[in-house]
Amino acid sequence: MTAATLLFLPTDDSQPWRWWRIRDDAFEREGEGLPDLTDADRVVAVAPADAVTLHWAALPARSAAQAVAAARVVVSDATAEPAHDLHVAVGQERDGERVIAVVAPARMAGWLAALAQRGIDPAALVPAPLLLPEPEEGYWRGDLPGQKVVRGRTTGWADEPVLTDLVTRGEAPRALDADALRTAAVAAIAEPALDLRQGAFARRRRRAAIDWGLMRRLAVLAGLILLATLAIDVVRIMRYSFGADAIEQRAATIARQGLPRGTGDGDATRMLAERVAQLRGPGQGFTRTAAAVYAIVEAVPETEVTALQFEPNGALRVSLSLAGEAQANTVKSRLAAAGFAVESSVFQQSAGRLTGDMTVRP
């Protein structure tokens, strides 16, 4: 950590506030009253040992809410007040056990209100005994500012002669010197074993200020994305337009190849269509009209075409030789059904065949 301040809460209103300044993971100095704090300082408040009861228990790994509910069951037999009326905080699991802290909600609210009146919102609120190191065996005693505390492997309390003798069963706790105590406290707040600021007393997260520089960069990126999308659409449209022009140019070139030499400039496609119409003839043209006539004649038994004459007006004169009048009527009716106007000449009987002409118009 760069800078931190341990702020020891007084056990009553008659005692002053005390603090330790920590910089670069080492004790720097101490004082009474309120220190001069900066925005870069991390403030960790220390709750008096006589106001917090500590327990250790093996709690299954589960969510924070479930762990607190299980802890309330564990401490319910050890408290005179109902567990649901107390503030219960649960620490991180270490060696299969978790530390449980129990404190009156009114004390928690009073501490945080007193800190808020002084413009302090502590990053954590740690019970005083947890600043001492965990002993491998026996107990440690430490003189913290304004209070003396004792800690065992699964216990921690305010040092009082009668209470200490009862808990330790006459075993004298070993005293920590000032340097060892400060070193242990620095390590303890770097990663607190338990933070009382949980549940209703959890620290509210401040909303981060809007980074307008980042917003401007995001707006520029969004604009560039839109421009790139528009550029892609423009390129696609231009590509389609150039492709269509190339197709039209190719069609005009092919159409001009079908025109006779010496044809003047103009719309080659239109001139080719006019030439095709001239070659095909008026009406539906000779080819389509003759094909329709031959298809109908072939479908009528004992009927054949003997001559064809295509007129300038689009009419096709068909000379027929038929077996009889019934075949002539069939051919005429089928031509009419195919969309042609049919005029018949007088058919004559000759050599057992009926001959005559039909004029077919569109």
Automatic annotation (TrEMBL):
Residues in coiled coil: none
Q: Give one Pfam hit by family name.
A: T2SSL
Q: Which GO terms describe its biological process?
A: protein secretion by the type II secretion system
Which residue ranges does the record assign to the GspL periplasmic domain? Answer: 212-361
Is this entry keyworded Transmembrane?
A: yes
A single GO CC term for this protein reads: plasma membrane
Q: Where in the cell is it found?
A: Cell inner membrane
Provide this UniProt record's keywords sorted from A to Z.
Answer: Cell inner membrane, Cell membrane, Membrane, Protein transport, Transmembrane, Transmembrane helix, Transport
Q: Domain named GspL cytoplasmic actin-ATPase-like: which ranges?
A: 32-138
Membrane topology value? Single-pass membrane protein
Matching InterPro entries, A to Z?
ATPase_NBD, GspL_cyto_dom, GspL_pp_dom, T2SS_protein-GspL
Q: Which segments cross the bilayer?
A: 214-232
Provide the primary localization. Answer: membrane
Name-wise, this protein is General secretion pathway protein GspL
